[in-house]
Amino acid sequence: MAPMKCPACDSEIPDQANACPHCGRALKAAPIRSLSGKLQAIGTILVAVSILAMMAGTWWGAALLFPGAAFFIIGRVL
Ligand SMILES: [Zn+2]
């Protein structure tokens, strides 16, 4: 793969870099992608835990389902 160029200082940056090693500018694409993956993972865990909790008859299972679904949807949309 061809190296990317820093939008701030125009230096070449390795593909996997989250920030420019020359000027320190954060590169947007990678952090957002990893954030959405994390949100989706958190949402999946929350939904799974809340469903298990609801089956066990606990009140906080239903309370957890809504933030869990919200995290999951936000993670998918990002
Ligand atoms: Zn730079």
What hetero molecules are in the model?
zinc ion
Q: Rounded to an integer, what's the Rg over CA atoms?
A: 19 Å
Largest beta sheet, briefly? 2 strands, antiparallel
Main-sheet strand order equals 1-2
Distance between the termini: 25 Å
By helix and strand content, what is the structural category? mainly alpha
Low-confidence runs of at least 5 consecutive residues: none
One letter per element, helices H and strands E, the order comes to EEHH
CA-based shape: rod-shaped
User: Helix coverage percent of residues?
Assistant: 55-70%
Task: Give the overall pLDDT as a whole number.
Answer: 85
Number of helices, counting only DSSP H or I runs of 4 residues or more: 2
Strand content: 5-15%
Q: Into how many domains do the coordinates divide?
A: 1
Total strands: 2
